[in-house]
């Protein structure tokens, strides 16, 4: 139980820190709390001062367990990557699963497994952020949604893609990971919509009246089963949004330098 508590402290607090001094202070606070309240030391619980790793994907029952055997974890992840690469319709990934990559994947899985679990992955391009997000989504049995940038891609086109995303997560009721990369932010306003998705789940004025009618037709059986009045657009839209919020997980991949990161911090708080 103590190892689980340590793991969750690292995931909830340490993973959000990007400064060495802050991480050192976190380690000091954690050690102090372990000594004061549990009468143990970090070293006595975690050999070689390696933080524990927990996950629910190594057993068929979905039990959240202490992944003590890293070699076993590595073999499992390599098998999953092989399965992913052999799945029809996917583009094979030439991904090297070194220790840090595997541990990052376990963290992504932990977050997107949670209701409304979203992540911000910061790193330079080519560091494997998208690949690990795809692999983690595959482990969770989620669909991956990405936008494709074309020459004249602007906010109207982005909104059309968001409609497809909402239909996939809401109408089709599919667990979905939306992977968005900072290089796809052609306009600053993209982050307004992303902020709305993250904060409330609703992108204002996304669907026109006739589009909502099409959605009602597609969901007629489910609306009836849930006792929702099809004539009440507010109830129908609320049902759609509830499904989207339950099924959608955002993974935003950003570089720590550049203008995009600056204005992303302005819009997404």
TrEMBL record:
Q: Name one GO molecular function term.
A: ATP binding
Q: Name one GO biological process term.
A: microtubule-based movement
Gene3D superfamilies assigned to the protein according to its UniProt record, in alphabetical order: 1.20.920.30, P-loop containing nucleotide triphosphate hydrolases
Q: What is its main location?
A: cytoplasm
What keywords is this UniProt entry annotated with?
Answer: ATP-binding, Cell projection, Cilium, Coiled coil, Cytoplasm, Cytoskeleton, Dynein, Microtubule, Motor protein, Nucleotide-binding
- The keyword ATP-binding belongs to this UniProt entry's keyword annotation: yes
User: Subcellular location, in the record's words?
Assistant: Cytoplasm, Cytoskeleton, Cilium axoneme
Tell me yes or no: is Magnesium among this UniProt entry's keywords: no
- List the InterPro entries: DHC (IPR026983), Dynein_heavy_chain_D4_dom (IPR024317), P-loop_NTPase (IPR027417)
The record's Gene Ontology cellular component field reads:
axoneme; dynein complex; microtubule
A Pfam family name for this chain? Answer: AAA_8
In this chain the Dynein heavy chain AAA module D4 domain maps to 93-262
Alphabetical list of PANTHER family matching this protein: DYNEIN AXONEMAL HEAVY CHAIN 7, DYNEIN HEAVY CHAIN 1, AXONEMAL-LIKE PROTEIN
Q: Could you say which protein family the record assigns here?
A: Belongs to the dynein heavy chain family.
Protein name listed in UniProt: Dynein heavy chain AAA module D4 domain-containing protein
Q: What is the lineage of its organism?
A: Eukaryota, Metazoa, Spiralia, Gnathifera, Rotifera
């Amino acid at each position: 139980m103590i190892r689980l508590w340590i793991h969750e402290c690292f995931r909830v607090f340490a993973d959000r820190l990007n400064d060495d001094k802050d991480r050192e202070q976190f380690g000091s606070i954690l050690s102090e709390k372990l000594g004061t309240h549990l009468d143990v030391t970090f070293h006595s619980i975690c050999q070689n001062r390696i933080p524990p790793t927990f996950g629910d994907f190594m057993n068929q029952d979905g039990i959240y367990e202490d992944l003590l055997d890293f070699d076993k974890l590595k073999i499992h992840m390599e098998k999953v990557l092989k399965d992913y690469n052999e799945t029809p319709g996917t583009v094979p990934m030439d991904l090297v699963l070194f220790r840090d990559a595997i541990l990052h994947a376990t963290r992504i899985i932990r977050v997107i497994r949670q209701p409304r679990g979203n992540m911000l992955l910061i790193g330079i391009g080519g560091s494997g952020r998208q690949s690990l997000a795809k692999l983690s989504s595959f482990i969770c049995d989620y669909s991956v949604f990405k936008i494709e940038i074309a020459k004249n891609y602007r906010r109207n086109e982005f909104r059309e893609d968001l409609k497809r995303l909402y239909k996939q997560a809401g109408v089709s009721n599919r667990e979905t990971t939306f992977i968005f990369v900072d290089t796809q932010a052609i306009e600053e306003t993209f982050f307004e919509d992303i902020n709305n998705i993250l904060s409330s789940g609703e992108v204002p004025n996304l669907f026109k009246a006739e589009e909502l009618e099409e959605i009602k037709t597609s969901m007629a059986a489910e609306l009836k089963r849930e006792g929702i009045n099809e004539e009440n657009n507010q109830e129908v839209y609320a049902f759609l949004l509830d499904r989207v919020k339950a099924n959608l997980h955002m993974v935003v991949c950003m570089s720590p330098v550049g203008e995009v990161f600056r204005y992303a911090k302005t819009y997404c708080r």
